[in-house]
Amino acid sequence: MIRIDARTSIDESLIEESFVRASGPGGQNVNKVSSAVQLRYNVAGSPGLDEGVRRRLAVLAGRRMTRDGWLVIIAQRFRTQERNRADALERLVELVRQAARPPARRIATKPTHASRLRRLEGKKVRSSAKTLRGKLGLDFS
């Protein structure tokens, strides 16, 4: 069990790892060794996440979340399987940590009296400038 905060945790039994061949660094070794890690985490079946965290996690994960509720993280940044495995787990924990933090509530505010006056003064200046651009009211007939 990986603890995120007091109410949120990741059950390690719901994490599946598979190892595949990686693209990127590794030279000829990359053609022989499966060093990339594909980590799959069952978000939908996780008892350690409440519904709000699940929803925020789905939004944060984007295309990495499957329709049936699995989060897929592919790590192939490093040359060794162990480092890629640690990287994938670290990225999973960070993603869940971000989802566990509820968004800050916006506090509605009103414009100050001075800002209202500045806005109205600016409107008057623009209005007079546009009025001066118009035709003169002279009639020569």
What does this structure look like?
This protein has 141 residues and is of the alpha+beta class. It has one domain (2-100): 2-Layer Sandwich (Double Stranded RNA Binding Domain). It is 37% helix and 16% strand. It contains three helices and five strands. The protein has helices at residues 51-61, 81-100, 113-133, and strands at 2-3, 9-10, 15-20, 36-42, 70-75. A hairpin with a 5-residue loop joins strand 1 and strand 2 (9-10). The mean pLDDT is 81.
CATH topology: Double Stranded RNA Binding Domain
- Number of separate domains: 1
Strands side by side in the biggest sheet:
3-4-5
The appropriate CATH architecture is 2-Layer Sandwich
> In angstroms, what is the radius of gyration?
29 Å
Beta-strand percent range: 15-25%
How far is the first residue's CA from the last residue's CA? 93 Å
Number of helices: 3
What is the CATH class? Alpha Beta
**Helical/strand content category:** alpha+beta
Q: Which spans have pLDDT < 50 for at least 5 consecutive residues?
A: none
Give average pLDDT, whole number: 81
| Total beta-strand segments | 5
Helix content: 25-40%
Order of helices and strands: EEEEHEHH
Overall shape: it is elongated
